[in-house]
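Exercise: predict the fold of this chain.
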Amino acid sequence: MIEKKEKKWKKFEKLVADVQQSLAPQAKVIHNDKVRGKSSNKLRQIDISIRQNVGQYSLFIAIDCKDYKDPVDINTIEEFMGKLKDIGANKGAIVSASGFTDGAKKIAINAGIDLYRLVDTDKHDWRAYVEMPVLCDFGNIKRYQFTYKSSVGGPCEISIIDPAALFLYRENGSEIDTALNLLIHKWNNNLLPVEPGIYEDIKLSDIPTCVKTEGKLYHLDVSVSIEVERNLYFGYLPIKEIKGFKDEQTGGVIFKALETDILDVREVAENWQKIESEEDLAVRPVLTLRGIDIIAVMKIKLPQKQENK
């Protein structure tokens, strides 16, 4: 026995019904429903019906599905308007695989009919390839400058002033870290200002710090001034998985959940559009991602001479 192949338009209707059920899991969604018309007294076929009780009210929504080659026109909208009136639906919507003409959109708006296109990234005849406009806002330390000041009377003798090699100690002689690593730690752990600007005299440690020279400890306060800059990049992030409908009248997408592709920071910096301000964009980003550059900690060993003191 040869199995009868399901028609393409019926697959489209079932797919729309599945997506609608995912958006309204508490509602009763029926594919290929029959409802008796109030005026015609005849059973009217409905591609998808949605019923749900809200308090003391019972809502009834009818959806028509059109897997046409060409955009849906005015005649289709007017025909659906008559069906909605006959069956007494509270709301009507049309889902088209090929969009709608401008005239159809105008008629539908006046009649209160929603117009949608299917958005589904699964592998099928109506698979959608979706991208999301994204703005990446990356902050980093553009410049830094250290200030060293003796905190307990008398001069301080320092033979090394390279912040990458200058080790700081506690008063008991135990190591803390280099001045540069303390700065890096604060930045990586979001303990420094991240908004663009210049910030001066930031203390690197909340405890008294010392330096060691020729085996002797000298009290030394270390502060840093930094200049923070922002780098703005605009681009489109592919969406791997989404099920929903695009509103043809507003341009918005109705969905319950989505999964984006992996965001590669190097790809963003190399290939996305770098801009000076969000105001320069003609397209409004759906998502803004803010981040800071993570700076690698400098692995510096104490000079052997200092370790033996």
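Check your answer against the key: Residues 304-309 have pLDDT under 50 and may be disordered.
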